[in-house]
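To whoever is on call:

I kicked off a structure prediction for a single chain this morning and the downstream step that reads the tokens threw a length-mismatch warning. I double-checked the sequence; it's 475 residues and nothing unusual in it as far as I can see. Pasting both halves so you can look.
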Amino acid sequence: MMSGGDESKRFTRRDASKLIGGALVSLSPAVRLSAAVRGAARESAKGAAADATPSGQEARLTPQPSDVSGLSPLETKAGLTAEDVAFLEEMERRGCLYFSEQAGPATGQVLDRAVNRTSTGAMDRRRPASIAATGFGLTALCIADSRGYMPGGRIRQQVIQTLDFHLNRLPHQHGFFFHYNDVTTGRALSWSEVSSIDTALLMCGVLTCRAYFDTDARIYDLATRLFERVEWPWMMNGGTTFSMGWHPDSGFISTRWDHYCELMMIYLLAIGSRSHPVPASAWDAFARPRIHYGPYNFISGRDPLFVHQYSHAWFDFVNVRDRYADYFANSVTATRAHKAFLATLRRGYNNDYWGVTASDWQHGYTAWGGPPLMGPVDGSVVPCAAAGSLPFLPKECVRVLRALYDQHGTDAWGRYGFCDAFHPSQYWYDPDVLGIDVGIGVLMAENLRTRFVWDTFMKNPEPQAAMLACGFRTI
């Protein structure tokens, strides 16, 4: 699943140097200071952030002492320090802010992308909303509520607004949504398809809200009706695997979700559906090709790193396997291979500078990475590559994220955290963030720290039933 932001960038992309003069809410220096002075540093940063936050937003942009006063057992087990946790807290808080400020107030739809170098938090003027970004956003709102990032009443109202709009007003086909829609009206954009994978991403967010707000009858009802309306067999179009989508003018897309990638969520959601299920045999219908790179042997197609992250953001594959693989361990190996591969390219990648996945680059949007080499990997770095792999390689991923901030934060860090991609030796820093890239970092950081998304999403009976039907067992 990739962003379709190229269409909108023709009108809004500008050289990053033109934005250098814009106000930038910088990360609290607390993540680099000794414990003795962290509290004072946070209070200073808190004041600066408050000055840059619009009146009435009530957004807290820096970690408070109580937020990181003690490490969770999972954080300790992962070998994180208090400074590491403060950094992740800041990254999550800013990411959650994106899904509050860059969502249509009347629709709840989340913008595909927005400018990052801003101090106002005003909604971006571009109009394409992404249902995938909205799925990440619904989950991020649950995280924001659990951590007290913003008033709970406001979060609950946004969740209800989002679910109600998608159930009752946003156009759909058999429960599947167009990938991109106008953020204000909900009208499908002319170049957009009805997307199977992006609908699945939205449904992961819908089910997370249903489980988290399970005592709210209205949220529970809206979420259940949205999920149970999806006619999963329709998207198979008579085959054993899912079509990638459907166009009003030309019908089903001929390419299919037929080899291992981020597709696991589609199959598990469909198999677990109580209203429109597909048979459990569909789990066996997609191929699981292998990549051999040096000492690394793992299941993967020739795809960017994010394919090893997205389904793992919600479905809990830790310490379980089916008859084919331990998919969590597979993602660990894929991340190790990716890091090792980049180091061989001699394009500036090292332990403090690595990570490339589908993202913006200087000339638009691209799918790139490896191994094997895919796309124009040119020495750019994409922070969400490491952020999305935080549960897989905690120490390595936290190290590179903190190094990227320490060395390039003046230019690469903004209101919503890291910009989408940058190439410091080329003096290029993307002015934008992408909702799906912000989202995967927020969700995986929280899973590393507390397992919150995994534990919440897996309370739903549908994913539990699906994994049981597919033969998953505890290792």
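Update from on-call: the warning came from a stale cache, not from the record. Cleared it. Sanity check on the structure: The chain has one domain: 6-474.
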